[in-house]
Design a protein that fits this description.
Blueprint (H helix, E strand, L loop, with lengths): L1 H38 L16 H7 L2 H32 L6 H9 L6 H11 L6 H8 L14 H10 L3 H12 L3 H9 L4 H29 L3 H7 L12 H11 L3 H29 L6
Helix pairs in contact: 1-13, 3-7, 3-8, 3-10, 3-12, 5-11, 8-10, 10-13, 12-13
Length: 297
């Protein structure tokens, strides 16, 4: 009995210490989450309670041209940015994993851009990609190439944003680098005994054993790409110009919720985004069994 009372007391203390986090989770996450489901079926606008309108918000979304432009831009960004970030991140990590004098300095240089706030990053690239006096077009002009309008062009605006985002992949590179250093040297020694060259080691040893890290960055990259907001919002002052080419899904959601106070409409958009991300994440996890390899398995 005494032992049971001690265990009960320990459990009680455990719940008491965890209660601030649990209460915060309930009040600031679970309750708003449940409320947003209800609001997505209403005309709620912060200032007014709104009326229940069923699936009208969702039907209205299907007829919203800006909504579909935002969906296209977001998918475009995810399709190109995520694979490019993985390929460039792995390549950079491979180079930064080499035993070269002063490598710590190079690693620091590649990581530094991730410390720059995205608003400051957007302002910096606005100057670099300025079509009239920007550094990029200035360098292209010296090579005899007429630089495009970049952010002022409907065609080049999204590639410009992808370029900016790739400049800040240092955090992913650090994760890849940690994954590379976790691979046992024994695998490389065995491959060398079999006569494998550097490229064959990378292809048959490094990449298969790095797939858990690649998978992690893939999932996080997809989620982050679908939530792209700060860079395009800062670059276009929330307008998504030119011609909605930089209007992203979360930007349109933000506009409806906090600019037009259409919280019911914004809640419907938020739940569609949640379902899309959950579906894509589920597909990635389902297919990971075919290509993700863990050491010792």
């Amino acid at each position: 009995m005494k032992r049971q009372s001690v265990e009960a007391g320990e459990r009680l203390y455990g719940w008491l210490f965890a209660s601030p986090w649990l209460i915060g989770l309930l009040i600031f996450f679970l309750l708003p989450l449940a409320a947003s489901i209800y609001f997505s079926f209403t005309t709620y606008s912060i200032l007014e309670p709104g009326e229940f309108i069923g699936f009208n918000n969702y039907r209205e979304l299907m007829e919203d041209k800006v909504f579909w432009a935002a969906v296209f831009n977001t998918v475009y960004f995810a399709v190109f940015f995520v694979p490019l970030s993985i390929v460039s991140g792995v390549l950079l990590a491979l180079f930064l994993n080499m035993k070269v004098k002063g490598m710590a300095i190079y690693r620091t240089i590649y990581f530094l851009p991730t410390l720059v706030p995205q608003v400051a990053l957007a302002v910096l690239w606005m100057w670099l990609l300025n079509p009239h006096f920007g550094l990029v077009n200035g360098m292209l002009d010296k090579l005899g190439i007429a630089g495009p309008a970049w952010l002022g062009s409907e065609f080049w605006s999204k590639p410009s944003l992808i370029l900016m985002s790739l400049w800040g992949i240092g955090q992913a590179v650090v994760i890849y680098l940690a994954g590379l250093q976790d691979i046992s040297q024994d695998y490389y020694d065995a491959a060398e005994v079999d006569g494998a060259n550097w490229l064959q080691k990378v292809r048959n040893v490094t990449l298969p054993l790095l797939t858990p890290v690649i998978f992690f960055n893939l999932v996080m990259g997809v989620i982050g790409a679908f939530q792209q907001f700060t860079l395009p919002y800062t670059l276009t002052k929330g307008q998504g110009t030119p011609a909605h080419s930089l209007m992203f899904y979360v930007m349109h959601l933000y506009d409806n919720g906090f600019k037009y106070f259409k919280m019911g409409y914004a809640s419907a958009m938020a739940w569609l985004l949640f379902l899309a991300i959950m579906l894509l994440t589920g597909i990635l996890f389902a297919t990971s069994k075919r290509w993700v390899h863990y050491q010792g398995k």
